[in-house]
């Protein structure tokens, strides 16, 4: 019984344990299921958040890309719109030009129609005159027949009265008629020649007037002073230098007079040679910009500026021939054309005068039906002899002709250059045109000034006279010719000789030159010792 009870108790206990174990396992499963659900919910929420974040990032990227594309599109559209507006403006301008040209063409056609009508009227008048002349000729023929008949009767009577044969009477009559015909022909020829002269004079005046009207040029006479503007008067002290050494070095290097006075923000550069004034002006500009102003630097800058001026002269010549449409000119002639910019003729700028003569020649040659390009070329080069680099005794027209021959110019151009002052005989129709246009350009009111040319010539002669003495390296006429500043070679001229040299030059000036007032002769001797450390 106890065994059964034990077994029963064991069974009951096992059953209870099984039940309790199952319940415990069920609770564990429920707890795990709940944790799994919570994890799944968390994962889903994180996934939704990540998806939302990714979505927002994509939307932002899309918006940025859209804005960028929109901006690029708007910029492109604006550029195209601007280009279209510009093209539209150009098209409108071109349309206006075409309309103006069309109006001009219509006006020309109207003028031609009027001329055609006038010619038609003249033709009708000529036809009527021809008919009248034919009638008069018939009348004259009839009268001639009557006169022949009367002449035959008179001849018969004369033969009876004078006892002359018909042949002898005919010869006598022919002689009388010949003398009368010669007298009438001479009178008729004289009238025709006078009428032709009058017509030719009118036509020539018309051509000259039309040429002058179609060429407008300013006439400004260059003076002997240039103004260098500065930002502050403090610069004047630097330009003068200690005890005036900088300004003396600048005047010695450039050959001009530097005037530093009370004029506000300006330094005056005085000199008769425009090349020297330009070199001094550009050198001052570079020195002031650099700030380092001392004698050695001044000489270096002046040397560089002089080289730059030579390059500028070539550029001016090239620009001039391009503006005038002249091709195939020798480089040396182009360089001489550029030198005209810094040369004056009786106070008139030589380059401006030559350009004007070239345009006048081209216009007049075109009016007369001649070669306008050749005439323009001759007009530009007609005074090329005035910029001959070396001093010569020949007239500038002959020098220019020799230059043109040297550089193989057209024979008509060569003759026009040499004959524009009647130095040689004219052999082409372009030569008188160049001579006339040169006179037209030079004779306009205010174009030239005789005193200026004689003044510059006197200053050049003054410099040449001083330069003829041995030991002189440089000489400059300054202060309007009232002072002659001379630089001598210290190795060949001593201090004692410098004093004697100034006296000799002053005595020679007194004997050989005519000048107003007095001329101060200053001889400068400067000793420099230079050595190099190697």
Q: How much helix, percentage-wise, in residues?
A: over 70%
- Rg (CA only): 52 Å
Number of strands: 8
Low-confidence stretches: 216-222, 445-450
Using the alpha-carbon principal axes, give the shape.
flat
Spell the H/E element sequence.
HHEHHEEHHHEEHHHHHHEEHE
Distance between the termini: 139 Å
What's the tally of helices?
Answer: 14
Mean pLDDT: 78
In short:
It is built from 14 helices and 8 strands. The protein is mainly alpha-helical.
Describe the model.
Residues 350-443 form the HD domain. One of its GO terms (cellular component) is plasma membrane. Its EC number is 3.1.-.-. Belongs to the RNase Y family. The protein is built from 14 helices and eight strands. Mean pLDDT is 78; it is low at 216-222 and 445-450. Helix content is 71%, strand content 7%. The longest helix is centred in the first third of the chain and has 161 residues, at 2-162. Strand 2 (257-259) and strand 3 (266-270) form a beta hairpin. It is flat, with a radius of gyration of 52 Å. With 534 residues, the protein is mainly alpha-helical.
């Amino acid at each position: 019984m106890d065994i059964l009870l034990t077994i029963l108790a064991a069974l009951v206990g096992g059953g209870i344990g099984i039940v309790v174990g199952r319940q415990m396992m069920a609770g564990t499963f429920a707890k795990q299921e709940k944790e799994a659900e919570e994890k799944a919910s968390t994962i889903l929420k994180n996934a939704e958040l990540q998806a939302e974040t990714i979505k927002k990032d994509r939307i932002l990227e899309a918006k940025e890309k859209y804005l960028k594309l929109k901006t690029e599109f708007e910029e492109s559209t604006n550029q195209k719109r601007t280009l279209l507006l510009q093209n539209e403006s150009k098209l409108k301008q071109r349309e206006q030009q075409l309309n103006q040209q069309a109006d001009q063409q219509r006006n020309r056609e109207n003028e031609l129609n009027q001329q055609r009508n006038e010619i038609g009227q003249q033709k009708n008048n000529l036809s009527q005159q021809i008919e009248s002349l034919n009638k008069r000729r018939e009348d004259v023929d009839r009268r001639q027949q009557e006169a022949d008949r009367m002449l035959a009767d008179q001849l018969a009577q004369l033969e009876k009265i004078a006892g002359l044969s018909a042949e002898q009477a005919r010869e006598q009559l022919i002689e009388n008629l010949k003398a009368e015909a010669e007298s009438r022909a001479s009178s008729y020829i004289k009238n025709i020649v006078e009428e032709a002269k009058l017509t030719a004079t009118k036509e020539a005046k018309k051509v000259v007037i039309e040429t002058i009207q179609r060429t407008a040029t300013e006439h400004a006479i260059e003076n002997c002073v240039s103004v260098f503007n500065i930002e502050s008067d403090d610069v004047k002290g630097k330009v003068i230098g200690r005890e005036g050494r900088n300004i003396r070095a600048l005047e010695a290097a450039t050959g001009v007079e530097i005037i530093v006075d009370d004029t506000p923000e300006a330094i005056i550069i005085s000199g008769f040679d425009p090349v020297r004034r330009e070199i001094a002006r550009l050198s001052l500009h570079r020195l002031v910009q650099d700030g380092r102003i001392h004698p050695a630097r001044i000489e270096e800058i002046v040397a560089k500026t002089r080289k730059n001026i030579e390059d500028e002269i070539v550029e001016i010549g090239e620009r001039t021939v391009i503006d005038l449409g002249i091709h195939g000119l020798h480089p040396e002639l182009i360089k001489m054309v550029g030198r005209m910019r810094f040369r004056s003729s009786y106070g008139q700028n030589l380059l401006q005068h030559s350009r004007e003569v070239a345009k006048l020649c081209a216009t007049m040659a075109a009016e007369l039906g001649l070669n306008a390009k050749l005439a323009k070329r001759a007009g530009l080069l007609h005074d090329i002899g005035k910029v001959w680099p070396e001093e010569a005794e020949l007239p500038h027209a002959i020098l220019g002709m020799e230059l043109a021959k040297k550089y193989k110019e057209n024979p008509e151009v060569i003759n026009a250059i040499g004959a524009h002052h009647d130095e040689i005989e004219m052999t082409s129709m372009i030569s008188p045109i160049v001579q006339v246009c040169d006179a037209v350009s030079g004779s306009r009111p205010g174009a030239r000034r005789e005193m200026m040319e004689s003044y510059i010539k006197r200053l050049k002669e003054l410099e040449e006279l001083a330069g003829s003495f041995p030991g002189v390296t440089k000489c400059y006429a300054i202060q309007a010719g009232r002072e002659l500043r001379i630089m001598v070679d210290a190795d060949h001229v001593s201090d004692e000789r410098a004093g004697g040299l100034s006296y000799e030059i002053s005595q020679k000036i007194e004997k050989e030159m005519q000048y107003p007032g007095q001329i101060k002769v200053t001889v400068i001797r400067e000793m420099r010792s230079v050595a190099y450390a190697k």
